[in-house]
Design brief:
- 32% of the residues lie in helices and 15% in strands.
- It is an alpha/beta fold.
- The chain has one domain (3-200).
- β3 (41-46) and β4 form a beta hairpin.
- α3 runs antiparallel to α4 (114-129).
- The longest helix is centred in the middle third of the chain and has 16 residues, at 114-129.
- The protein is globular and about 45 Å long.
Length: 201
């Protein structure tokens, strides 16, 4: 049974919990782009609590833009700043040093479109967490019922929406100071749990 998700920037744990048990994942790329979603934002844990990292995008001349058409802005050297934020937050985590060479090169690239940047990161993370799913992109907007027997989890792209999933605490670098923070970017779990990530999911 295929799973339908939105394109997202190193999406939260809930995305990957939804993927478990699905051999096929459809990534919607014909949805309307909305600000303040996980499409261009991920949340990590720092010593001061949750921190949002937002990819700047180029705003078009039309009120509604399709996700597939959203271009990444080069404003503010965000790639360097984001990777430094990951390194600062997770350099003392158990597995950051094991996975940084897999993930860092994506931030050193020069993707023009947000959906392509997200897709490359997703492909890498799926391999690292051991989810063997075939990922394809929609060739048109998927309306309700147009894909038979499809689990539609596109709502997970909105912060605060978890689909009634439960998140058991796991080790986080700053948990003694901040308490456990659930449903952060998958990067948080990967750097903290490493090869135990599939067991949690």
């Amino acid at each position: 049974m295929p799973l339908l998700l939105c394109s997202a920037y190193l999406p939260p744990v809930s995305f990957f919990m939804a993927m478990k048990g699905h051999g096929q994942v459809l990534v919607e790329q014909f949805d309307s782009y909305h600000k303040q979603t996980y499409r261009n934002r991920c949340v990590i844990a720092t010593s001061n609590g949750p921190q949002s990292l937002t990819i700047p995008v180029v705003h078009g001349n039309t009120p509604r833009q399709l996700m597939r058409d959203i271009r990444i802005s080069s404003h503010g050297n965000w790639r360097h700043l984001h990777w430094n934020a990951f390194a600062s937050a997770y350099m003392n985590s158990p597995f950051f040093m094991y996975y940084e060479d897999d993930i860092r090169p994506v931030f050193e690239g020069n993707h023009s479109f947000l959906v392509d940047f997200n897709a490359e990161l997703l492909d890498i993370v799926l391999k690292l967490v051991g989810i063997n799913a075939e990922v394809t992109f929609t060739d048109g907007y998927v309306t309700e019922g147009s894909v038979p027997h499809c689990d539609d989890f596109r709502h997970l792209v909105d912060p605060g929406v978890t689909g009634d999933m439960e998140f058991k605490p796991y080790y986080q670098v700053f948990s003694e100071r901040t308490g456990f923070i659930p449903n952060l970017s998958i990067a948080d779990m990967l750097f903290n749990l490493g090869p135990e990530t599939p067991l949690y999911l």
